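Subject — a protein and its fold

Tokens — whole-number codes for backbone shape
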Amino acid sequence: MRHVTSALCAATVMLTIAACSSPSSSPGAPQPSVFPLTISRTGGIAGFHDVLAVTAGGLVSVTQKGMAPRRCRLTSEAARRLATAAATVAWPRLTPGSTGPAFPDDLVTMVRSPAGGPVRLEDPQLGAAGPVFNELVNDLNGGRSASGMCAPV
């Protein structure tokens, strides 16, 4: 009888563990791709409306209010930094942030990935990745010739 009780307890524990684990948390399950990343900046006193779409290969499509859309390729160093930053974010566990301004002149800068988001760049959930994403947005704000992170294609 003692062996039956032990076997039943072991089976119950195994079933409980199996029921509580989700397929996305198992090591062999495919994870959603982090790329393409979409970084948007809207509002602020200047009335920004910028959208950057960044592919895994470092190709960036830039759309800015009042300017013609353009494309550029991240330098190898910028692509490495961005990929490293994106890989550190716990995308599936992000709590999506408010996409609206908190006050009339609020500058809202957000990032979205197929793996999660949108979330504001200043949100602590992004950790050290937020400043890296923000650096890219600011670098591309100066236009094609001013960018040190992205070369025209």
User: Anything to note?
Assistant: Residues 31-152 form one domain. The first strand starts at residue 37 and ends at 43.
